[in-house]
User: Fold these one by one.
Assistant:
Number 1:
Amino acid sequence: MRQIEQLLGVTSKTAAATGSTSTTSSAGQVVFSVPGTLGMQSNAAPLVTFANAVTPSGLVALLKVAAIGAAVSAQLMVAGVSYATLTIPAGQTQVSIPGAGAIAANALVTLNLISVGTTFPGSGLSVILQGVS
């Protein structure tokens, strides 16, 4: 698990120092990264908590290579409860949705992959929490 002590002013150097694939930036974003070919799984990205409560303004999901045959769905969980589900339709590489409310301080944030493409599952997923200041 990784504690993010400051949301603003923290750069990707934090992730490089810890070896994590979740990062923050001075723009107020947290990125959950799932490299490689996708498969359905729980806790697909490193676990994250926030030192202070945050309210993301939006969420974006991006794929390096689009899924074929079915959509890719990623579920962001906060303290074991579904916070938001992002579904990227087959053949597409991104989707955006508005934020789904506040995330409490010290709540465990996880990412689950709940569906992937059937002919090709897709690869290189990034889920971005935007505006977490």
Number 2:
Amino acid sequence: MRAQSNAANSEPDTVVPFAPALENAAASSTDQLDRAGQTILNMLHNAANLAEANSQHALDVAQKLSHQLRAAEARIAELESEGQSYQERAERGEQWLHRVYSEIEDRFLKQGNRREAVSGAPRRNA
């Protein structure tokens, strides 16, 4: 019996308390929730940083394209002005050609017709 009493006396020493096990499970569950929450926050921060970087890149590209567009518009205006200038010069050149033609016609062709009329000789074709 003495063996039994020793065994009975030793049982309280070998019994595993249930409360700490429940506390460990609860602590483990809390640690898991904390890790999951922290992981989600880290992922959210990474996504926000990536979105910000993408937004900044898009803004940089938009500004670059805006500058290029303004430069292209300025060049177009310059070329249109240049084209207008050439158009005006071409029209003035045509006016001068018409004036020169009129002078030639008045001075030489009509004068030649007057000579034929005065001399009565038919005009020769060259």
Number 3:
Amino acid sequence: MKRLLTAVFVAAFGAALVRAQAPAKPAAPSAPTREFKTVNIEVKGNKIWTPSFFVVKKGDKVKITLINAASAVHAFAIEGYPVDVQVNNAEGDNSKTVEFTADKAGIFRVFCSMHAGHVGGQLLVLE
């Protein structure tokens, strides 16, 4: 009986030692950050964010720098995401950055929540 207990103890100790020396599993890679820069411009009275079409993958972190070069204050919003900021056109105060995680796949409308007819675009989040 004493030999059996010794054998069980040695086997358990050996297994614990092997597990302790096994290399750790590598951490899952973090989602990439997709960075964009878009500028609000005015062409013949029409205000647009350019580029106005953004493509990312579900799970990506998204960072969009907004620069307002058009007249007046304009907003940048994405339907279905918590993005809705106003960007002034005054020199030195004409840029903002929005960041979010693309956690839903689909096509989402990009618009100015202040002047919906002025600017438009889309966010495409691939599965």
Number 4:
Amino acid sequence: MAPRPDTAATGADAARPARATSLTPYPDGPVVLRGPLRLVDAAGVEVGTHRRAVALCRCGHSRLGPLCDGTHRSIGFRAPGGPPQAVGPRVTVPLCAEDG
């Protein structure tokens, strides 16, 4: 028997609250987004990621930009960190490539 449309969302999935997305700036490192997310660049092109946590470059020198590749360690990047912050379903983060 097929479920009725008004009862289709039952069971464990319906009982789980939607996961929030959080943003955490790490000291001297990247900004990490955790939770359900979709990254889109300034041109509107989706930046493919299949992870629930994504580290975004803050130093501007990552070869994987906008994603962090750890270059901040070798160049001595310094920036303050901060506690995790809950963010809404849509987060605007300027993703830009360095002119090369």
